[in-house]
Amino acid sequence: MSEALQISNLHKRFGGLIAVRDVSFSLAPGEVVGLLGPNGSGKTTVMNMISGALPCDGGTIRLGQTDITKMKPHRVAKQGVARTFQLVRPLPTLTVGENVLLSLAFGHRRHWGREARELVEEKLAFVGLAGRGDEQVSNLTYIDQKRMEMARALASEPELLLLDEWLAGLNPSELKIGIDLVQHLQGQGMTVLLVEHIMEAVRALCSRCIVMSAGEVIAEGPSAEVLAQPAVIKAYLGDDHA
Ligand SMILES: Nc1ncnc2c1ncn2[C@@H]1O[C@H](COP(=O)(O)OP(=O)(O)OP(=O)(O)O)[C@@H](O)[C@H]1O
């Protein structure tokens, strides 16, 4: 079977800074893989290139059989890629349901009228916001904003979900709810690339991790093994801990 996502020799410069250097990795269908690394190591830049938000300076990105390297974000979304952002950015004048409804326009299937409303309600129920579609976004607590962000991503019916620190800022009980939700998606066979700093979440969710440092992949493999590697500990905590 072909890989769900295949990244080869990805490269990105910002002026004189090489933010991503020769990065290659792949995700099998249904895998939940962690993309880790200290601040500034290039993780979000990789996510931005996969979603089409940033053009690549080199390398290729394939989604299944399709080369998406040069596609604009709306076309990447139509191919079945959805993402969440570090900071939830709802449209504040719209209701919760309307915020979710909007992302149907970016999905790879068309839904109208009642069918669209039912899909929105289904996604809201999945994330724990059943019956709350008519609420104002400003009423939502932080965890509920995160749930809405996830419902928005799922409403486009993606095959690959990019979660960029979606669990950040949650308290311990909310974190458990967030992890459960991703596990539920995992159970449904969703392929997920997860940028995350919370190791409890990485250990619970990711069978495999890719670790970046200063734009390069420095380790890749089963999570428990990778997280114990001296090079990874050094990248996160400095020389004294390696
Ligand atoms: N649009 C941009 N213009 C210039 N430099 C950028 C831009 N975006 C990112 N960078 C730089 O590229 C490097 C990688 O940044 P990136 O945000 O990808 O790291 P990250 O691993 O996601 O970090 P964090 O965990 O803090 O989100 C950093 O040095 C950052 O300052």
Automatic annotation (TrEMBL):
<dbReference type="GO" id="GO:1903805">
    <property type="term" value="P:L-valine import across plasma membrane"/>
</dbReference>
<dbReference type="InterPro" id="IPR051120">
    <property type="entry name" value="ABC_AA/LPS_Transport"/>
</dbReference>
<dbReference type="InterPro" id="IPR027417">
    <property type="entry name" value="P-loop_NTPase"/>
</dbReference>
<dbReference type="GO" id="GO:0015188">
    <property type="term" value="F:L-isoleucine transmembrane transporter activity"/>
</dbReference>
<dbReference type="InterPro" id="IPR032823">
    <property type="entry name" value="BCA_ABC_TP_C"/>
</dbReference>
<dbReference type="GO" id="GO:0042941">
    <property type="term" value="P:D-alanine transmembrane transport"/>
</dbReference>
<dbReference type="GO" id="GO:0015808">
    <property type="term" value="P:L-alanine transport"/>
</dbReference>
<dbReference type="GO" id="GO:1903806">
    <property type="term" value="P:L-isoleucine import across plasma membrane"/>
</dbReference>
<dbReference type="GO" id="GO:0005304">
    <property type="term" value="F:L-valine transmembrane transporter activity"/>
</dbReference>
<dbReference type="GO" id="GO:0005524">
    <property type="term" value="F:ATP binding"/>
</dbReference>
<dbReference type="GO" id="GO:0016887">
    <property type="term" value="F:ATP hydrolysis activity"/>
</dbReference>
<dbReference type="InterPro" id="IPR003593">
    <property type="entry name" value="AAA+_ATPase"/>
</dbReference>
<dbReference type="GO" id="GO:0015192">
    <property type="term" value="F:L-phenylalanine transmembrane transporter activity"/>
</dbReference>
<dbReference type="Pfam" id="PF12399">
    <property type="entry name" value="BCA_ABC_TP_C"/>
</dbReference>
<feature type="domain" description="ABC transporter">
    <location>
        <begin position="5"/>
        <end position="239"/>
    </location>
</feature>
<protein>
    <submittedName>
        <fullName>ABC transporter ATP-binding protein</fullName>
    </submittedName>
</protein>
<dbReference type="Pfam" id="PF00005">
    <property type="entry name" value="ABC_tran"/>
</dbReference>
<dbReference type="InterPro" id="IPR003439">
    <property type="entry name" value="ABC_transporter-like_ATP-bd"/>
</dbReference>
<keyword id="KW-0067">ATP-binding</keyword>
<keyword id="KW-0813">Transport</keyword>
<keyword id="KW-0547">Nucleotide-binding</keyword>
<dbReference type="GO" id="GO:0005886">
    <property type="term" value="C:plasma membrane"/>
</dbReference>
